[in-house]
Amino acid sequence: MAHSARRDSPELPDLSLLKRLVRDQLIYLLEQLPGKKDLFIDSDLMSPLDRIANVSTLKQHEVDKLYKVEHKPIVSISDQICFLIRPRIQTVKWICDVVNADKAAGKFRRYKIIFTPQKFYACEAVLEEQGVFGDVTTDEWAFYLLPLDEDIISLELPEFFRDNFLAGDQRWVRTAGSALHLLHSLFGPFSKVYGIGRCSKMTYESWREQVEQGEQKARHAEIGNVFLIDRDVDFVTPLCSQVVYEGLVDDIFRIKCGCVEFGPEVTSSDKSIKVMLNSQDKVFNEIRNEHFSNVFGFLSQKARNLQTAYDKRRGMDIQQMKTFVSEELKGLKQEHRLLSLHISASESIMKKKTKQDFQELLKTEHCLLEGFEIRECISFIEEHINRQVSMIESLRLLCLLSVTENGLLPKDFKSLKAQYLQSYGADHLLTFSNLRQLGLLVEQQPGETLTVMESKVGKLVNDRTAVKLTDAFSSLAKKSHFRALSKKLNLVPKSDEEYDLRVPRDMAYIFSGAYIPLSCKIIEQVLERDSWTGLEEVTRLINGHEFAVTGADPKSKSDAQRIILVMFLGGCTFSEISALRFLGKERGYKFIVVTTAITNSSRLLEALLDNNV
Amino acid sequence: MAFITANWNPLGDTFYRSAELYEMFWSLRDGLGDSLVAAAPYGGPIALLREPLRRSPSTRPQLEIYSASGASIASFPWKSGPVVHLGWSVNDELLCVQEDGTVLIYDLFGSFKRHFSMGQEVVQSQVLEAKVFHSPYGTGVAIVTGSSRFTLATNIEDLKLRRLPEVPGLQGQPSCWAVLTQDRQTKVLVSSGPELYVLDNTSCTAVYPPGLSPQAGSIVHMSVSFSYKYLALFTETGRLWSGTSLPLQLPVCLLTFEPVYLSRCRRPRSQQPSVVLMWDRLLLVVGSCNDTIQFPLEDQSVLVGELDGVRIIGSISQELLQEVPLVCQDIFKIASMAPGALLLEAHREYEKSSQKADEYLREIKEQNVLGDAVRQCVEAAAHEYDPDTQKALMRAASFGKCFLTEFSPDQFVTTCRELRVLNAVRESSVGMPLTHTQFKQMTLQVLIDRLVYRQFYPLAIEVCRYLKIPDYQGVSRVLKHWASCKVQQKDLTDEAIARAVCAKVGDSPGVSYSDVAAKAYECGRPELAIKLLDFEARSGEQVPLLLKMKRSQLALSKAVESGDTDLVYTVVTYLKNEMNRGDFFMTLRNQPVALSLYRQFCKLQEPQTLKDLFNQDDDHQELGNFYVTSSYRDKRLEGRLAQLQSAVDEYNKAKNDFAAKATEEEMRLLRFQRKLDDEKGAGLLGLSLQVSVNTSDQSEMSLGPGCDWYWWLKLTSLAEKEQWEELEKFSKSKKSPIGYLAFVEVCMKNNNRHEAKKYVSKVTPEQKVKAHLAVGDLEGAADAAIERRNESEMGAVLSRCSASDRLLMDKLNRARVATAKK
């Protein structure tokens, strides 16, 4: 990257320690049930488990067969069964059915349930209710944190978002607190903790409680500061289309647990290939944070370099050739393979994006972010819905419109929703109810002067002028919070200047220079000020719960003080991670992102759909 | 201190000394005669019951409790039945064994704690004799009944009565008996005439003490040593037999006496046990070598066996009789040349500024035993009772230490500290005459506990602080006891107690306010308990007690506060079972966190409850959603429609017109789809309107007025099927609500420029340029742009121009300049 990067970035702590710890614990738990056993694993634990212990490790510890939990009667013949599951009531109920079926068939087996990361009382209550409490043994596998990369840690709890923010179920807060506690005990003590959002506050308190109960050990801090942030502080950012390479790959191919599966259209063969996407992949590491428009240029440059490296062979004598083959060739080949993969991935992205008038879409998004030509945007969204382009995409645009405009006008609200239901099915009525509850898709409060005026004006003049007037009014009347925030924090750079995406000057580059992600901007501002002072207006608009607590005394201005742990409660996007990496380079920080799960617009909205019954 | 050896009495090759511990505070009118006396070992308290067998209700006997120094702790008239025996438990509780076999337990302060019975049959046969004994399991009680049967309880905390087998030939009261614990078994040694039996759980075995001739007559007294290791027997002919208790081994001593009381004295490190015999006015110490020491007694006394000696409690004073510890003998024996003695002497000379000090020191150093000398002095100091002697010895040790390099000061420092503590508790106001050996045996933890039982809280705290015990085991533990005691003070208001407790305890680690509160609740002060719970920082800890106190609302809010959802859930389930449904729902309503938790649970487990929950809240919106959700579960159309109809009703009640209308439309659609499915088997049921129209190609299905999407659908499907004439007809059927640019674009997408051009003219002026550009008609676009005098549109056209369109570009540029001028 051509950034004016600071050279003195501190070293990141070794996160692989987390993996080793949980692997040892898992092995210990498996040994608790000696002898051959079949292991049933919750489907969404498969990939995370794979990153911790592969099949051969499990086999070493007498796991005979592996099954996915499918909520169907089981076919295992083993007399010992181990279930590795998330503490979900449905799964526990299924286990009860399995046990009861065995009982009815007079089959005797030993059952062990390993809940991860913890068990809930409700699960045990179900076991008790179904009368199998005595037949099973339960255990907890404290698998809180999965390091996805050297600076990304995930709790792999996608349901955190829905449970916490939509259902108001705070059961995961303690989990988050425990995760933070684990990090604190391994890499702490933290000298300063900032946070914003209700859930952050509760997580912080849960963590403090655990710190107070446990023993304190004086150790050398490896992580200095912590920033906790709720997802509902900033819904705008995850609703935007991602245009940074890693984000785009996630949007299109879905990165799962740091791993992506490129289908036949990328691999240009009939197989799909699974690729790990992390800093080990040299090619990917260099383009992951780049705006997509730069990726092709970079890749072709890379291809040329590679060719030159290959070309070196020509003038070599036997001896040189020998060293070349033994030392360089393998690396080059590997790089070559990855390079071609990423090139075809980019091509595939290009194809997909141009097909759906990607430029138009981005333009609309940018207009929404700027609060400009809203009428045109609404027509675009209408058309989008009516043409059934994509159920999730349409919903995303609707939400983005509502969030940036602080709600829709009642007339638009009704007509857009009606059209949506006709296009995508009436069951989305429930989805709308969820979105409304979360404040993602709301009606502007009626009774405001604006609507009255509008209706009067509407009768007087013809439609088109009325629309313009309404636009004017809406900007005059109660400013949406997003607008106010955007103004206050300068989130939307002035559009009249050309933005050179190759030499980004601020975090806005991750959205083509159109918008600086609110979440990252808040983090930047707080770190710069070292407190929330001066941001009172901002926190009021966000409806804050902000806090800043000084903890352990930072003894020296050590490197650890410049390592900042950012914890996103409810998920964060790759674009945000890229933005933070950029910020880190600019300011000489290193960020470690902890998130309940990696999210993007589709995952965010899919979590809120309610038609899956 | 010069005459330290003045009260030493030789016995064989060792010495015995008796030191006065206290002038007793008490003033007993009638002395100790005619009373039941029980004194706890390890310098414990003394209980006194006068005339225990007096039965007349008019003059009840008085039960008095004193500290070891005779300071009165409690005194109250005995109102229950006749008492046979008094004894102390390891927890400083007083056990009173009554004639009817009931054992009443009082605490140190004379307040009744509880009682238990030694068995039903005892009520009939009456207790003849009882003994309280200590074993590794705790405190036990043994009784012998009128029917000559023994019953044992080895641990009063975990009461299990054991009736021992019958003793052959025993009628009435045995002449004497003792309890001893060996190999984790409790046995009773009983003599019936000249026979001696050992009783255990299952058997009664006769034993014969070797060396005791049958002519000696029946055994009238027996005594077991503190550690149950040694036994002494005394026969009616006045012979004393002493040996190891079980199995009976060689006698140590045989003497002829008539004692009143028999007790054993044992030195920790000497192999020679000795027996103390007491007559009315005489005390006799008998060693193994047929030697005796005689002490005259001034009045009636009581002997208390200790680990390393015997306490002699009289009505005036209390003395400790013990063998002089070896190390003290070494130092203080006249003309001793032990290193310690020399060092003490050296120091003495040094104090006098005499050069002899150097000589002594040299002597020690030449033998290279200075380290030993220091150790001896320190050790001896620990065993001395008199502070001046302690000081002299410690000073000497410290003096000797100066000449040593690489000598660990640990022993010195610890002993100093321990002595200070011991001196403090020996103070007659506290009254715990502990020797250093006893202290080491009972450990500091127990000492603190005992101080706490005696309510010497300040002293206990001082001790903890002085010995630097970690707060968790020390100060906090004391404070916890103090607080639990404080809440029982009936004369103080709840407010005052809560304040006092909070002020003292503050936030010391390890003191749980909820424990204190539980105590307050036990004492019948729920208000105080709640006040105390408020101080509890961990809300999770408050919940169980609150539930117990039936303050479920408060428990729920505390659980919510704690942020521990498991706890919330526990309370919710508890409430669910405790309350009626209405109240339960009302309670939940005030606690959104609990409510949402319960809702989550119900969603998966009890959908009907969820409905009731919404009903209770009149939450019509959620009820509507609920019906919609359940409609999807219903496989039959009729059921589905019924559910949806309910949803519509609810939405109407919620004044959500939009949702009501949408649901109604859905119902209409469902019916229609059904009709089509029945007619044509199209399989439409459940699809969205637009998809249905698309797949079935039924325009009549377009039910509502919002027909934008219909136009789009028709447009794209016609274009895809290349039915261009149809398309044209369709475009003319009505004014297109989606404009005509869409027609142009869709045609172009299906590669039909010819058809596309047809629609360009219909496009609105604003979109003209775009339309022209879409069909690739640059000139048309340019004309349109110029006509509209729109600079940006002209720019857009220009950017599409290639070099071959020179003329056009000039034209546009000119127009641009012209527009710009205006």
Automatic annotation (TrEMBL), chain B:
Subcellular location as annotated: Late endosome membrane; Lysosome membrane
Function: Plays a role in vesicle-mediated protein trafficking to lysosomal compartments including the endocytic membrane transport and autophagic pathways. Believed to act as a core component of the putative HOPS and CORVET endosomal tethering complexes.
Keyword Lipid metabolism attached: no
Matches recorded under SUPFAM superfamilies: WD40 repeat-like (SSF50978)
Chief location of this protein within or outside the cell: membrane
Sorted UniProt keywords: Coiled coil, Endosome, Lysosome, Membrane, Protein transport, Transport
Entries under InterPro entries matching the protein: VPS16, Vps16_C, Vps16_C_sf, Vps16_N, WD40_repeat_dom_sf
Annotated coiled-coil segments of the chain: 634-661
GO MF terms held by the record: actin binding
Statement: the UniProt record of this protein carries the keyword Cell membrane: no
Cellular component, GO, one term: CORVET complex
Pfam families found in the cross-reference section: Vps16_C, Vps16_N
Topology versus the membrane: Peripheral membrane protein
Organism: Xiphophorus couchianus
Domain Vps16 C-terminal: 511-694, 710-815
Protein family: Belongs to the VPS16 family.
GO biological process: endosomal transport; intracellular protein transport; vacuole fusion, non-autophagic
Annotated ranges, domain Vps16 N-terminal: 5-413
Name of protein: Vacuolar protein sorting-associated protein 16 homolog
